[in-house]
Amino acid sequence: MDLWYTENHTEEARFSIKIDRQLVSRQSEFQRIDIFESREFGRILTLDGYLMVTEKDEFIYHDMITHVPMATNPNIKKVLVIGAGDGGTVRELLRYDSITHIDMVEIDEEVVKLSKEYLPFTAKGLTDERVHLFFEDGLKYVRHKEGEYDLIIVDSTDPFGPGEGLFTKEFYGNCYRALNEEGILVNQHESMYYSSYAASMKRAHQRIKDSFPIAKIYQAHIPTYPSGHWLFGFASKKYDPVGDLDAGLWNNLGIKTRYYNTDLHVGAFAIPNYVKEQLESE
Amino acid sequence: MDLWYTENHTEEARFSIKIDRQLVSRQSEFQRIDIFESREFGRILTLDGYLMVTEKDEFIYHDMITHVPMATNPNIKKVLVIGAGDGGTVRELLRYDSITHIDMVEIDEEVVKLSKEYLPFTAKGLTDERVHLFFEDGLKYVRHKEGEYDLIIVDSTDPFGPGEGLFTKEFYGNCYRALNEEGILVNQHESMYYSSYAASMKRAHQRIKDSFPIAKIYQAHIPTYPSGHWLFGFASKKYDPVGDLDAGLWNNLGIKTRYYNTDLHVGAFAIPNYVKEQLESE
Predict the structure, then answer these.
(1) Domain containing residue B20: CATH number
(2) How far is B219 from chain A (nearest CA, A)?
(3) Strands B78-83 vs B149-155: parallel, antiparallel or unpaired
(4) Does one domain contain both B14 and B130?
(5) Inter-chain touch B219–A221, beta carbons under 8 Å
(6) Domain span at residue A46?
(7) Does residue A91 register a pLDDT over 90?
(8) Of A108, A155, A244, A246, which one is the catalytic site residue?
(9) Is there a contact between A258 and B272 if contact means CB atoms under 8 Å apart?
(10) Do both A77 and A17 map to the same domain?
(11) How close is the nearest chain B Cα to the Cα of A194, in Å?
(12) A231-249 per-position pLDDT tens digit
């Protein structure tokens, strides 16, 4: 049997993974959810046909979306996570004893249910008593919060479909208000290599810059995402992610990671000229 | 018409590019050479079916294989380039006025001929008077050289087929002897993400470490190469690529690059833990 999952990275570039078998195919209220088993990448979650998580390289994404802000400010206690239904972001956050409270707001309860059943490697922390789950729209949730969080992580889908609102000016402004004076906002920021998302991510970056005094972009090598050159946004009221990093302090925590380290933290903010130019161009 | 070029990154992962038309398909003495035209990636060169160069992202590879050693030692004058038939590496080297002499040793004259005809964007420097072309086996060429070069760049194909000898202990030892006391060796080092090459590249890295007192690995985001997380080897008799970088000096040269910059130079050497562990494991 020859079963392949194919994602169109553009209309003219495709990435295909050999599938052993399909475990789940379900239409939720918000999106189509599929889970596959593969030999090369282990279990794979897709939403509306777009690859979200593979067992082989999810550690890269989850390391970079959590440890970069946590190492920048090791005093983070209260965190809001938007999206992230697979649980991987919360799993990494729970490794910090300093974190006392995580609110996680996922629009689609089905994603959490299915992740708990089929993706235990990411979902294992979701029953921890520090985690408070809300199944609602993150865009609406954050409107009513003020000065409450040390860190907001926006672990969204792409800038269309259910996640579209999480790239708007209104949303970033509400995140600013929901954060306290030490607050950091980190979001998944797509790739700039293919022109399909480049324009909308440039707009998103400009909107974040309009809302926060500090707004930077950092990158990671995520082989199963389009182009493999994935970006994250780091915005904050006070902390500079490179200048304020205390590498010794983070290394003393003894958190063992497979991708992240404090040298790479600094290196991740050194983005190529062509990406900088695209982000800053008029 | 629906014409696609597909490369198997492993038996279970494929990358496919929509092709507008095929411009060349030729069997040389050493390998099969194909050149395609595509809308997303421009012109594409493949050897034995493996993607070598695309017009869209060749600048990333060529920036990183040349500017990293050149910024580490701005006094480099005499360079040996092995492989690199498309001409992109020589094109970047020629931007340095300090370089007075480039020997380029390419085993397959057909690759150079066809690149001059179909890939003028990379091949344009090959007729420069500072460039001396030799169509022979780099492995043999380097055996008879002693203390002659400031820099050797090994811009090879994969560690099998015609390029196989360029990953051996004998070859690295001969490169050491061919370099002067200031000498630097840079080589393309594949990716560690898929297990297919990981073992042979770990061996290659150990061999380079056995031959040179300084041996490091650095990385770049090259979307059209397997995994997009591409590695390069940096070995030298004297220079540390991070400690000895004089960023101000390089920036004063005024060389405009689309990928490389001196912050990224430092960041490129901050490789993920899982790659370090694979390279250093027993």
Answers:
(1) 2.30.140.10
(2) 10
(3) parallel
(4) no
(5) yes
(6) 3-54
(7) yes
(8) A155
(9) yes
(10) no
(11) 9
(12) 999 999 999 999 999 999 9
Q: Which of A15, A34, A54 is where one domain is finished?
A: A54
Local structure of B15: helix, strand or coil = strand
For B159, B165, B172, B240, the CA distances from B168, given in Å and listed in that order, are 9, 6, 7, 23
Residues B19 and B70 in one domain: no
Same structural domain for residues A24 and A154? no
Q: Chain B contacts of A16, Cβ < 8 Å?
A: 13-16
Percentage of chain B modeled with pLDDT above 70? 100
Residue A156 marked as a ligand binder: yes
**Would you state the pLDDT for residue A262?**
98
Least CB-CB distance to A40: which of B13, B258, B264?
Answer: B13
Q: Are residues A181 and A64 part of one domain?
A: yes
Over residues B58-72, the pLDDT tens digits come to 999 999 999 999 999
Distance from CA of B63 to the nearest CA of A (A): 11
Q: Do A20 and A158 have their domain in common?
A: no
Which residue out of B264, B277, B279 would a mutagenesis test of the A interface target, given it has the greatest number of A Cβ atoms within 10 Å? B264
At which of B37, B54, B71 does a domain end? B54
Contact status of A143 with chain B (Cβ, < 8 Å) = no
**What average pLDDT does the structure give for chain B?**
96
Domain count, chain A: 2
The SS3 of residue B215 is strand
Decide: B219 and B186 in contact? Cβ < 8 Å.
no
- B41 and B69 assigned to the same domain: no
The secondary structure of B68-109 as a DSSP string is: HHHHH-TT--EEEEEE-TTSHHHHHHTT-TT--EEEEE-S-H
Residues of B with catalytic roles? 155
Residues 6+ apart with CB under 8 A from B201: B159, B189, B190, B191, B192, B231, B279
pLDDT tens for each residue of A193-209: 998 888 889 999 999 99
**Which of these ranges, A75-89, A107-121, A157-171, A195-209, has the smallest mean pLDDT?**
A157-171
What pLDDT digit, counting tens, does each position of A154-179 carry? 998 888 877 788 889 999 999 999 99
The answer, for B122 touching chain A at a CB cutoff of 8 Å, is no
Of B194, B260, B268, the CB nearest to A267: B268
Q: What is the ipTM of this complex?
A: 0.95
Does B1 have pLDDT greater than 80?
no
One-letter identity of residue A220:
A
Do residues A8 and A99 both lie within one domain? no
- Residue A238 sits in a domain of what CATH number? 3.40.50.150
B40 is in an annotated binding site: no
The mean predicted confidence, pLDDT, of chain A is 96
